[in-house]
Design brief:
Layout: E1 79-83, E2 107-111, H1 126-143, H2 149-159
Parallel strand pairs: 1-2
Amino acid sequence: LAKAEDFQTGQPGQRPIELIFYQFPVADTYLLAVQNRSGQARGDATFDLFVYNGQIPPQFRVGQASLGTPADARVAFAVGAVHWSTDALEPYSSQGPTADGRVKPELVAPSAVTNASYAPSIFDGTSAATPHVAGAAALTLQAFPHFSPADIGDCLQNRAEQLGGAAPNNQFGAGRLNLGEPAAGE
């Protein structure tokens, strides 16, 4: 149906990326094949498949290590998404660990929310969750103008409502955003 043949040899500077754009005519199960043409692939690389605007059956989804760039950067504050009413991790919410084993995301925040801009529809995705954290960071900085970016992140993570077992973890990070009441001297 479609193919990409950008032959890669693993040379420095060569990006190991293939892109295929195809509009499937019917909802069905399709097969994807990756060929090691020259037999030189090391076999220790991670294979990431991203399907945009498609439905992957649950038995084929792997959430672990699904965090992409730039959220996997050391200085990035990654935000995952949970349903606003149940705290259930949204199926599209990327998870850690990073390629070098770090725990990500830092926090999760509400998704599937209502607001004036999207009414009567819901505002969904990490695109909805992330502004919650950005707003909380701004309020924290307003209350504590001496805080560094790291201090703000620590404050938000320390106040998070723990979810998913021991925190931090690779699904919920430190937990769901929760500013709570300000602590004296913070």
